Every structure is written in structure tokens, then in C-alpha cells.
């Protein structure tokens, strides 16, 4: 068993966190209360200690229960204009992370797809399983156009949010990308952490983000013309990390973990596309297509990687080498497809 | 909310899960790990305005968490599996019968290490810190980190390999 395997075992243990995410606002409130207590105590010992208990709340305007600002029940000026929420609830699906990658029945998947895509009256295809965040096909009959449903999670995006995603389908910032991914999956991933991303301006941005609890992740592709469904056949877009195993960096990985497709119809350029997770000691991967003048490096963070690269050199043979480097730049391994 | 507080909230949201996982690997108990991290983040808030944020509040928080987890781990290390996890693990036994058994053995092997050895192994092979970073975090020499990590790793490897041999069908 080498150190990589030990590392992988430790990650697998650590990924079994059964507890809820920490409440950051409650911690903030606790920190503020601690700070006020120290200020009062520094004014003069015993009397200040009594005063800390006796001072009415009106003299401590920041004293709150740790609720974020704007929550109903906190005092806000009457003239404040109510801002419509970015997301509203989807009946029958938990909000946020709890509603992401949720296993549902065929009947429930059918209901959710009908809610999201009322324009399609056909049934969805029967698969082995259905999860929120998973894209399924509608059944095809003669004369039908192919259509698909990304089974929605519990956060329906507002009209304004959808419009923002359509106006800016391949944004440059992490915040805007997560906004658009939230619109694709009907799951609020705006507070998730982007672990890896890569962009080919002509083709797509691929990114992986992990939830605040660390229990779920989203693989999201954003394309130049906004598409409100995730790509078919790429597996569940939102998935649970429990039981996930990191990919071994070997020739099979070169074959399947980071494949390429024809860059455009009738031409020889290659588009490299993929996302996943490898060992944590890999900090960078270089793609070097045989016959091409170009190479492409991607940053790997805690094993997470994403690739979206169009090699413009038409002389690439389709064979390529992947080289993994550690954070000092030392070559760890080279593999081939 | 003032900018400083907003920064703190964002930091907690981004890092608390990962800090808790590290604390768990060092102290062996999810609830204790949660307590350790909450205390460390509370103390971090007290120093937030003094911290040089061009530096690394995560390094500061990790140091507080690991040292507190090591101290808490000097009490008998025990593996607690919450009831919800048991049912979750049972549901997956059909798919990954070996996976569950292996995970228990890794946990047991980790628990057999002394707290500081365990911290060295976790920081070096889970957090991927360098020898120098690990030494700074634990407040010991690089030589100590190397020897503790090497011994801890060896113990872990031996325990896991032995357990695998015992389970191998005759």
C-alpha cells in the first residue's frame, strides 16, 4: 500500500461526515457576543459583569439570534423595497443541498419534469434510476424532436436569474458560473466552492463545485448559447460524494477520464473534455497531443480537475500523453491513451 | 453586515466542512471534531481583524483545529458510528461488501496511532502538507515530523495489510 492509497483511504473516511453544515451566522453571533462581553469587562471588573446581564437589548443594536440580515422578524425600515428571492421552493423536493442528487421514483421524476418542462407532453424514458440533477430523455415517437429533462432539484430559479443566465451564458467569474449552474439544475449552488474549471471560449466552460458540507458536488457545463438542460450521457450532474472513489491515473484514465471529440464537423481539430477526481498529490496535468504543436495544462485542486480545451492544431493524431505533476513541479507519472 | 463579518461568514462557509473532516481524522469522533472546529472558529473571529488576510486564515484555523484535536485525542480514542451511518452503511453493503469492512480497519488502524503520530499522518497524507508546513503547524522539528509520519504510515500499512490477509478467503 503506497502513500497515495493511504491518502485515498483517509479521504474516504473523512467523506463520511454525518453532521449538518456549520451555521456560520450562529458562529458570527457567538463571536460578536464574546467581543461585547470582553469590551464590557475591560471597562471595570465586577460591576461590568453585572451590567453585561442587565443592559437592555436596545443599547446593543447588533444583538441578534445570528439570523442573516433581512430575515422576517428583524427590524427593517418600512421603505425598504422587497427583493424577490432568487429561488423559490419546488413542491415535494427539499431545498438546497438536501434536494440535490436525491433519488426519486419514475412517477416523481415524471411529475418534476412536467413541472419544469410543461411544453413536453410525452413521458420520460424508463431507466434504472432517477435522481434530481440527472438528465433523461423524453420518449420519442415518429415525428417527435428529441427532448430531454434535467430533473429539477428543490430551488426553482427566478425569472430574473434565468434571464441573467441567458444574457451571460459563459461568464468569467465563479459567482456568475455558479448562478448559471443553479439555473441548469434548479439547485442553489451559489454558495458551493468551485474546485476546478477550464474554458474553451468556442466550446464550453466545464467546472466542478463542492457543497459547503463537502457531501455533494456538481459537474456543470456552460455553453455559448445558454442551455437549461445538462448534457445527456455525462452521468448525474449533481452527485453525492459518499462512496466516490478517486480515479487512478493510468492508461485507462487517459482513455476514459479525459477524452476528446472532433472539434468541429468535417475538421481535424480535437476538443478535450472531462471532469473528475484523481489523487490529491497531483497538482497539475498536462495534455500533450502527439503531432500537435500545442499542450494544455490544467490545475488540479485536492484531486479535482476539469478540462475544456480545443486544440486548434489539425495535425494532432488522436494519440496523446497525460503527465501528472506534484505541487513542486516534479513529474509523478506519464500515461497514454 | 460589515465587510469584516461578511468575510468571516464566507470563510466559515467555505472551510468549516473541510476543517471538521481533518479534526475527525485526528480525534476520531465526529461530534468532538465539530466542537473542536466550532471553538477554533470562534477564537478565530476574535482575532479576525488582526489577522493579515493577505496571509492565510485557513492555515491559522487549521493549526488551532489540529492542536485542539490532538489535545482532545489524548483521551482514549474511540470510534463512534452514529445510528444514521449504520443504516447508510448497511444499505451499501450489497454494493461494496468489502468497502465497509476496509473502512472500519483503516479507522481502527488510525486509532491505534498516538495522537501526534496520527496528526502527522493526517497532515502529510490527507492534507498534503509538506514536512516543513507540518512541523510549523505542530510546533515541532522537521525531523520529528519525518519520523512520526514514517512510523505512523508503517503502522497503518501493516495493520491494513494484515487485516486484508485475515479476510482473504482460504
Automatic annotation (TrEMBL), chain A:
Membrane-spanning residues: 40-59
Region annotated Disordered, chain positions: 66-85
Keywords, sorted A to Z: Membrane, Transmembrane, Transmembrane helix
Protein name, per record: Uncharacterized protein
Provenance organism: Kribbella pittospori
UniProtKB/TrEMBL annotation, chain B:
Domain of life: Bacteria
GO molecular function annotations of the record: DNA binding; sigma factor activity
Keywords per UniProt: DNA-binding, Sigma factor, Transcription, Transcription regulation
Domain RNA polymerase sigma factor 70 region 4 type as annotated: residue spans: 104-156
GO terms classed as biological process: DNA-templated transcription initiation
InterPro entries for this protein: RNA_pol_sigma-70-like (IPR039425), RNA_pol_sigma-70_dom (IPR014284), RNA_pol_sigma-E_actinobac (IPR014325), RNA_pol_sigma70_r2 (IPR007627), RNA_pol_sigma70_r4_t2 (IPR013249), RNA_pol_sigma_r2 (IPR013325), RNA_pol_sigma_r3/r4-like (IPR013324), WH-like_DNA-bd_sf (IPR036388)
Domain RNA polymerase sigma-70 region positions: 12-78
NCBIfam families for the chain: SigE-fam_strep, sigma70-ECF
Family statement: Belongs to the sigma-70 factor family. ECF subfamily.
Protein name: SigE family RNA polymerase sigma factor
Organism in which the protein naturally occurs: Kribbella pittospori
